[in-house]
Amino acid sequence: MTKKTISIFGSTGSVGTTTLNILRENKEIFDVKILTGYKNIDDLALLANEFNVEAICFANESDLEKVKNKINYDEVEYFIGDDGLLECAKVSVDIVIAGIVGLAGLPPLLESIKSSKKVCIANKECFVSAGSLIMNEANKYKTQILPLDSEHSAIFQILENTNNTVKDIFLTASGGPFYKYSNDELLKVKVDDAIKNPNWVMGKKISVDSATLMNKGLEIIEAKHLFNLDENQIKVVIHRQSIAHGIVSFEDNTFLAAFGYPDMTHPVKYAIFYPNNYNNKSQKMNVESLNNLSFEAVNEEEHKALKLVRSVLKGDDKEKCIILNSSNEVAVKAFLDKKIKFIDILVVVEESIEYVSKLLGSETINYSDNLDNILYLDNLTRQKTEELIKLKI
Question: Which residue in 130, 245, 274, 302 has the most C-beta neighbors within 10 A?
Answer without folding.
Answer: 130
